[in-house]
Write a structure and sequence with these properties.
Number of strands: 13
Strand content: 25-35%
Shape: globular
Oligomer: single chain
Distance between the termini: 57 Å
CATH architecture: 3-Layer(aba) Sandwich
Helix content: 25-40%
Largest sheet: 9 strands, mixed
CATH topology: Stationary-phase Survival Protein Sure Homolog, Chain: A
Number of domains: 1
Length: about 260
């Protein structure tokens, strides 16, 4: 353990809610790294809220104890409150988001509230991690072993120089630590949610429907999805600056003299 990490302030958030199993596991891991750990998380599940924040209406933060607060808003609301109100005089050194109950792989990251908290941490200038456990949507026997995997992942990367506007999206395979095949540095796969639509009721003027969890798209061999499905920990550096730099030149040539 490095002295720098031991003194670091860690902010923990998630999108499954403050009572979720995954956030308790992440706090356990964080306390192996630092003595200064804070949990500010949504009061209820906020899955699929991505990087949304509450633009209208008041939000409420409830103090559960000295280091645990819940907010009746999104993961982004929680990080904004933590960085600019609760911890503004000593801002976090790291944001840990998760551990998500299920994976955040491929284009799921664009919808993920777990990723949303990490994005906001990144925009606040804080090194941020998004952690997820593949296959854990309906429970997992491997929650207790996750700190054994999380701690060395943070230790390996926390003291590195990170590019601006970049966070690390880390997905763990659902297996015991001794069965993990290794670590792969990956790109997003092209799988995407949203094509499974269940019609509940329909009339000439209205339609009631649910969006399912089936994904389509490619699972490329160098991708995050492929890695986790084959027993590897997937680590993907995600840049939140979505400007297509290569296309800038194309558009300049089209529009500018």
């Amino acid at each position: 353990m490095t002295g720098g990490l031991k003194q670091a302030r860690i902010l923990i958030c998630n999108d499954d809610g403050i009572e979720a199993r995954g956030i308790r596991v992440l706090e356990q891991a964080a306390r192996c790294l630092s003595d200064d750990v804070w949990v500010i998380a949504p009061a209820t599940e906020q899955s699929g809220k991505a990087h949304s924040f509450t633009a209208k209406g008041a939000l409420n933060a409830l103090k559960k104890d000295d280091r645990h607060f819940c907010v009746d808003g999104t993961p982004t609301d929680c990080v904004l409150f933590a960085c600019n109100v609760l911890l503004k005089d000593h801002r976090p050194d790291f944001v840990f988001s998760g551990v998500n109950h299920g994976s955040n792989l491929g284009l799921d990251v664009l919808y993920s509230g777990t990723a949303g908290a990490a994005i906001e941490g990144t925009l606040q200038g804080i090194k941020s991690f998004a952690f997820s456990l593949y296959g854990a949507k309906h429970g997992s026997e491997y929650w207790p072993t996750l700190p054994e995997l999380i701690v060395p992942m943070v230790e390996k990367t926390a003291t590195m120089n990170w590019p601006k506007h970049t966070f690390l999206n880390i997905n763990f395979p659902e297996c015991a630590p001794k069965e993990v095949a290794g670590i792969q540095i990956t790109r997003f796969s092209s799988r995407k949610i949203g094509d499974e639509i269940q019609i509940l009721d329909r009339s000439d003027r209205a339609c009631s429907f649910k969006i399912g969890y089936d994904r389509n798209g490619m699972i490329e061999e160098n991708s995050d999805t492929y890695a986790v499905q084959h027993g590897f920990i997937s680590v993907t550096p995600v840049c939140v600056d979505m400007t297509n730099d290569a296309y800038l030149t194309v558009l300049k040539n089209r529009f500018l003299p």
